[in-house]
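Quick one, probably user error.
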């Protein structure tokens, strides 16, 4: 089923007809919908209060806590969509990979995956492995009413980068060494991760998520030819695997201006654009038939309100001829962002674009 067809009984009519869902389907909207990547979490004092003393990965397995954190920015900012609170490494942890998220560092893998024998550690993900996700989404859909819930997962390349490097990297030398030196192993690694990622997204959709976003956080480290040959097939496999559900699929990466056409080819309904490429130029690169999401520089939020509004008007002007537009930042909310700035920004976009 395509995103332009009528919703199934699983999708409430009010949610299906929301501004966010309409924009994903490139339909007329009452106002430009707004949500923010990383809106659920670190910039909110109420988030730090409820998570006090709870490690990150543990917090992702507590359904009531996940629901509360996911709802916090919806209550505070009045955004047009909620995004499920989790982390891209949750499905890897769920299948038994020994990893942790270390404060100030990020995901750290105890034993990196670098050989063909290591692939055996990447078993299939089952719904029982992440039953807490199903429970949390059930709680959320009961509370959110007409507000859509966006599920998400990390894309195969970004997950592979963490698994091979053993943690965050700026150069990806170990991952690229396998990609260039043993392309068959690399292809098999990404294919396994595509299956795990698709299974994780299916759990979220079947539990009630209205849309999903595939985050390829580190894809910008790749040249277009390498992306097409070594990454695109796995991302396309994930997006194809959930196509039949009829929910909008968003694809986003950081520093991916040179990859926008290829990311569009991967099969998403909406392509996320970071702040380095203007939306009108991004539309030219992506091509017709896709909505775009983005793309205010997150650092703009530290400027005075007048400057934030001026830069926001520039984004909205660049977006005026798009087939569909969802307003977002060009990357995640920074931890020290003033939450009130996000609330004002949401209201400003709604007011400026009211039709």
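Nope, works fine. Designed sequence:
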């Amino acid at each position: 089923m395509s995103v332009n067809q009528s919703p199934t009984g699983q999708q409430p009519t009010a949610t299906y007809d929301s501004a966010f869902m309409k924009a994903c389907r490139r339909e007329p909207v009452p106002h430009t919908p707004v949500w923010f990547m990383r809106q659920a979490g670190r910039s909110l004092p109420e988030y730090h209060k409820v998570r006090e003393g709870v490690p990150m990965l543990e917090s992702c397995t507590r359904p009531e806590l996940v629901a509360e954190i996911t709802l916090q920015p919806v209550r505070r900012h009045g955004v047009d969509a909620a995004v499920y609170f989790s982390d891209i490494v949750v499905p890897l942890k769920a299948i038994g990979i020994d990893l942790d998220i270390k404060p100030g560092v990020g995901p750290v893998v105890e034993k990196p995956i670098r050989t063909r024998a290591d692939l055996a550690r990447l078993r299939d993900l089952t719904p029982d492995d992440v039953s807490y996700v199903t429970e949390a989404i059930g709680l959320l859909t009961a509370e959110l009413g007409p507000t859509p819930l966006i599920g998400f997962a990390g894309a195969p390349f970004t997950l592979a980068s963490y698994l091979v490097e053993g943690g965050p990297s700026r150069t990806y030398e170990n991952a690229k060494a396998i990609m260039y030196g043993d392309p068959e192993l690399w292809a098999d690694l990404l294919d396994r991760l595509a299956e795990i990622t698709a299974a994780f997204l299916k759990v979220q959709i079947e539990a009630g998520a209205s849309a999903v976003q595939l985050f390829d956080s580190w894809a910008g480290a790749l040249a277009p030819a390498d992306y097409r040959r070594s990454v695109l097939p796995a991302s396309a496999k994930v997006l194809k695997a959930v196509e039949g559900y009829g929910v909008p699929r968003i694809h986003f990466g950081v520093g991916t201006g040179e990859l926008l056409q290829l990311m569009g080819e991967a099969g998403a309904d909406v392509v996320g654009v970071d702040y380095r490429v203007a939306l009108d130029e991004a539309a030219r690169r992506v091509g017709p038939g896709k909505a775009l999401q983005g793309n205010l520089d997150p650092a703009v939020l530290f400027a005075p309100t007048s400057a934030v509004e001026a830069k926001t008007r520039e984004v909205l002007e660049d977006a005026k001829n798009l087939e569909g537009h969802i307003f977002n930042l060009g990357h995640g909310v920074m931890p020290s962002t003033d939450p009130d700035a996000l609330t004002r920004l949401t209201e400003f976009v709604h007011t400026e674009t009211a039709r």
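Residues 1-9 have pLDDT under 50 and may be disordered.
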